[in-house]
Amino acid sequence: MKKTIGVAMAAACVASVQMAQAQTTLDTLKVQNLHEVVVKGVRAPKNAPFAVANIKSSELQKFATSGKEMPFLFSRTPGVLAWSENGMGTGTTYMRVRGAGGSRINVTIDGVPLNSPEDQTVFWANMNSYASLLGSAQIQRGIGTSTNGDGAFGGSISLATKAPSTVPYVELTGSFGSYNTWNTGINFSANLIGNSLIFDGAYHETNTDGYIHGTSGRSGSYYGGLTWIGSNFKLSYKNIGNFEKTGQAWNGVAACDYDGYSLSSYGINSYKDMYNYGLGRYNQLMEDLVYPSTDGGRLSTKSFYFRDGRKWNQTTDNFYQNHNILNFVWQPSEHWTHNATLHYTYGYGYYNEFRRASALGKKFGLNVYDSDGELIESEAVRRKGLTQNNYGALYNVSYHNDAWDVIGGLSAQMFRCNHWGYLTYIANEEVERQYLTDGGKYMYYDSDADKNDYSWFVKAAYNFGSGWNAFADMQMRIVDYTTDGVNDKFIKGTKDGRKFYTQQQLNIDETYVFYNPKAGISYTRGGHKAYASVAYANREPERNNFTDNSSAALPKAEHLFDTELGYQYRTANWYASANLYYMRYINQFVMTGAKSDIGEAITSNIKNSYRLGAELSAGWSPLQWLSLEGNAALSQNKLKNFTEEVEAWDTEAVHNTYAKSTLSYSPSAILNGFVDVHFGGFSATWHTNFVSRQYLDNTESSERSIPSYSQTDLSFNYTSKVSKALGMKQVTLGIDFNNIFNRHYAASGYVYYDWYNEGKRTSTIAYIPMAGFTCMTHVTLKF
Q: Rounded to two decimals, what is the model's pTM?
C-alpha cells in the first residue's frame, strides 16, 4: 500500500513538473509572439523582396561584452562600414550603409524612431551596452519597408528589446582590456505577480583611456521595464537611458605643419607614416599642430594654461538621453492584431571646447578692436549645447490569414529643440570683463527649432500559386520644420571703415509632402528564394543644409529610386545569396568644395548620382563543429557632371568639372570572412575584413583619399553549466584579440586644407585612425 502511494505521489510530482514546464513554454511563446507584434510595422518579413540581414539574440549578447558601439557589430554584415573617433570602438562612433552616412540610415527601437529629427542621425556615442538590452536586430539595405521617422536613403536598422523573461534571473558581466578599457553590467528579471507582471532591468557602463590622446571617457546605458501579460494582450512601459562624458577627437590627426602644409616633404604620405614618426595619436583638440624636424625628431606640442594655473585637458562631449515608451498590444483573434505606442524622449547635452587664438568677431561676434583698429584675437573656451523634447504616438493594425498579410499604421512625432552657446572663458582679461558678466559666461547664440512629422502607411503581402508572394506598400509623410533665432555663424562686413561681423539670423519655415511607394514579388520553394522590388523615397534637408549658407537658395528635398534583385539558396549545411541593386539619386546632397558666405564648407544638391552594386553572402559547415562564412559588397558609386570649387590664394576660386566621378566615403569593396569553431561549451571565431580605398572628396583623386586596409580579430569563449549548489546557472569566460597583426591604418578622414597657389594645388589630409593590436577579457555570471 505504501509502495502504491509512493508511486502515485512520484507520478503526481513528475506530472506537476511537466505541467509547469509546459506552462512556462506556453507563457514564453505567448510573450514572444506578442512582443514580435511591436516591431512588425518596421520589419521585413521572411519572404520580403528586399536585402535583409538579421542579427540574433545570442550574437547581440556576446557582442555586449566588448564595450564597443553597435555599428561595429553591424559592420559584419554586407556593405556596412564603422569607425570611432577614439580608435577603440567606444565613444563617438559612425557608420555607413552602401556608402550612405548616418543621417540616411533610419533607426528604430521597438518601432520608435531613434534618429534626431533635425540632424536625422543617431549619435552612437553612449549606446555601447544597448546590445545587452536587445532580443534581435534587423538591417535592411536600400529603402526597404515603410518605417517610422526619417526616410531611409541607404538603409534602416530595426532594434527590438528582449521579450521579458518569465523565468527570473540575474546576469553579471565584466570586461577589461587595452588602454584601461573596462565594461561592467547587470541584467535581471523578476516576476512580481506570477507570470502576469514582470519587472526587468539593466545597467551597463564603459570606461576607457582611448587610443587617441584626450579621448578618455565614461559612457553607459540603463533600462527598466514593467510588463503586464494577459490572455491576449500585453501592456508595457520601458525607460531606456544613456549617458556619456567622453573626450573628443573629431578633428582627427592632420598631416600638416603649423602653416597647414602637407608633410609629404618629410616622406609622410599615409597614416602609417604618421604613426612611424610618432604623430599617430596626438589630438588636435588638445594640442597645437606638430610636425617632424629634419633630423627625424618631433617638435614638442604646446599646452594651454588658464590664468589660475589650470591646464586645459580635453574637449569633452557630455550628453544625457532618456526614452519613455508605453506600448499596448492586443490580439482579439488569430487574424487581427492592434499595436499602440506613446513615446517621449528628453535629451540634454553640450561640449566644452578650447579655441586657440581666434578672431573674436569672426567666431563669436565680439567686435572688439585694438589700438590699431584691428579685431582682437584671443584664446577662449566655448560651451555649445542643446535641449531636446520629442513626443510621439504610433498605431498599427494588422490582418493575417493563409493568403493575406496586411498592416496599416499611423505615426505622429513632435520635436522641440533649443540650441545655445556660451563663452565661459576669454584669455584677454579686458574683453572677458566686458562680456562675461552673466555669472562668468556670455551667450553668443540662441535658436529654437520645431519639427512635426506625420505619416501613414498601408502595406500588403499576398501569397498565391505555389510559393509566390506579391508585396505592395504606400507611405505618405508630411513634415513641418521651423527654426528661428540667431545662429553660431557670423558674416563678415564693414562698419565705419573697419571689419565688422554680424550674426546669422534664422528664419526657416518649410513644409514637405512625400509619397513613398514600394512594390515587389518573391518566389520561395524548398531552399530557393528569388525576389525583385522597386521603391521610391523622399527625404527633407537636414538642419545644416539650411544653416551653412544663409545667402544661397533654399536646399531642395532629395529623391531616390531603388531597384533590388536577389536570389538565395539554403541547404542543411551550406547557403549562398546574391543581391543586385541600382539606387538612382536626384538632388543628393554632396560636398562641392565650395565655402559658404561665412567661410565653412557646404553641401549642395547635385542632380544626378547613383549607387550600383552586388552584395554576396555564403556559408558552409563541412563539419558539425566548423563553420566558414563570408560576405562581399562590391559597388560603383558615381556622380554625373559634377563641378567642384577650390579656393585660390592668388586668384578667384577655381572650378573643375568631372563628367563622372566617385562619391566620397563610398568604398567599391567591403569584404568580411569568418571561421567559427564550436564544440561543447567552447567557441572560437576568426574575422578578417577588407575595405577598399575611400575618396575624401568627390573628385576621385588618390591624393585626397584613404588607402585600402584590412585587419583581423580573433575571439575565444567558453561557457560552462554550474552546480545549482553554487547559486549560479552558468559561467562564460572569453577573450577578444583585435587587430591581431597590429595594422596601423585610418578608417576615415577628411581634406584638412585644399587650395591653389600659383596654379599648383596643395591638399592636406586629416586621418581618423584606429588602434593597433588590443585585447579584451570578459566574464559573465548567470544566476
A: 0.92
